[in-house]
Every structure is written in C-alpha cells, then in structure tokens.
Inverse folding.
C-alpha cells in the first residue's frame, strides 16, 4: 500500500502559460500567507476548508511549497474533481504577485 499516492501535477511554468486563459486557481495557504502575496485571480481556500469546494474543475491548486496543495489536490481528486497540484508552489513562482485579500 502506498502512503503517498501520485496526484496530477503541473509545473509553475505550465501554470504561467495557463494563466493566459481564464482558469480556476485555488491557493490553500492560510489567509495571512495569501494576503502577503498571491497570484492575481487566485481564490483563497485554506487547506482545512478545502472540503467546502464545490467546483467541478479543472482546478489548479497552489500553496507555499507544494505539500499542502498536494494534499488538497488528492482530496479533490478523491471527490471526483479534475484537480492539478502546482509543484513547487509559491516558492518557485516567478510571475507577478498581488498583496492583500
């Protein structure tokens, strides 16, 4: 039995290309982390609240390093949602960020 199953993932570069389209991007960091800087258009749903997500996907999930977003993506995929983890998270993000809510 595998403790850490693989989840669908994309790179930060792939996310940057996808942002040219209108996509659903969820940032699962805590509210204060999100306020400190996030990708424009991202929706903040902290990891503890991810079960409240009602979308169908595709949805892209990011956090600070990629660990929380991997957990959230696994949860969403388990609910039948077309979800993708952003590997490396905000630590590897090189695009523009917006501060505040």
């Amino acid at each position: 039995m595998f403790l850490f199953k693989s989840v669908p993932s994309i790179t930060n570069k792939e996310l940057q290309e996808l942002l040219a389209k209108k996509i659903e991007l969820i940032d699962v960091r805590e509210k204060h982390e999100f306020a400190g800087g996030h990708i424009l258009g991202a929706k903040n749903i902290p990891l503890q609240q991810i079960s409240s997500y009602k979308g169908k996907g595709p949805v892209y999930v990011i956090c600070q390093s990629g660990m929380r977003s991997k957990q959230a993506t696994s949860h969403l995929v388990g609910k039948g949602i077309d979800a993708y983890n952003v590997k490396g998270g905000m630590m590897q993000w090189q695009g523009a960020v917006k501060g505040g809510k």
